[in-house]
Amino acid sequence: MATERDDDGFVFKTLATASLTADDRALMLSLFDACYRQANHAYFEKSLEQLRYASLVWHGERPAGFGLADRRVVELPRLPQQTIVMGGLCCVLPDFRRQGLFRALEQRAMAAGDAPRPGRALACGRMAHPAAFRTLAVSPTVVPKPGVPLTAWQREVGQAVADVYGVESFDPETFVCLGSGKPIGYPVIEMQVEPPEWEVFRPVDRDRGDSLLGLAWVPDAPPGW
């Protein structure tokens, strides 16, 4: 477990999800409930099985948020021993938003994962709303991309990454991770979204618990991507 205090007085605790105590889990669920309407606790528990690291943050005595993430070296189609960084569920209470905590939590949880291989890394995430997709969508290497058909290789890689996430039903034609029939939850936040941002989300049924798998390369894509 790593504990770190930043210059703004936030204290971060990063640890393996397998070592979370009952109190840790209860705290994270209370944050999930505070940040999402109809927060799906079963989805949270499954996320703890899929992603190996969690980062929690406090300001003084007040819990402020948590993030789940991972970094692994895996075999992908045509990409042996490929580093992938996997974003997961992240919740920050309204009083502490717009202070960089989403990124800080995810980065700490990702950094706790496997040592990265030299060269490129594949950034991955599952999003249910276009606003959450923006961090990947700004990359020229992102898939899926509005108006651009997916290639066979991209579909193969998407399926492989979905398998690492433990997705039970994945549509490689749309990159939709089909849900369990219940929503993951609806964020308690107002987010401005432009109409073009919804295009790749049209097949996503949030009421069913769907999410969209997004992929983007850092710093650049392999040849042929």
Model description:
The protein has about 220 residues and is of the alpha+beta class. It has one domain: 3-Layer(aba) Sandwich (Aminopeptidase), CATH 3.40.630.30. Helix content is about 25%, strand content about 30%. A hairpin with a 2-residue loop joins strand 5 and strand 6 (about 80-90). The N and C termini lie far apart (about 35 Å).
CATH class: Alpha Beta
Question: How does the helix and strand content classify structurally?
Answer: alpha+beta
Radius of gyration: 17 Å
Which strands sit side by side, in order, in the main sheet? 1-2-4-5-6-7-11-9-8
Gross geometry: globular
Write the H/E string, N to C: EEHEHEEEHEHHEEEE
CATH fold title? Aminopeptidase
Q: How many DSSP helices? A: 5
* Strand residues, percent: 25-35%
Q: From the 3D coordinates, which CATH architecture would you assign?
A: 3-Layer(aba) Sandwich
The major beta sheet can be summarized as:
9 strands, mixed
Distance between the termini: 37 Å
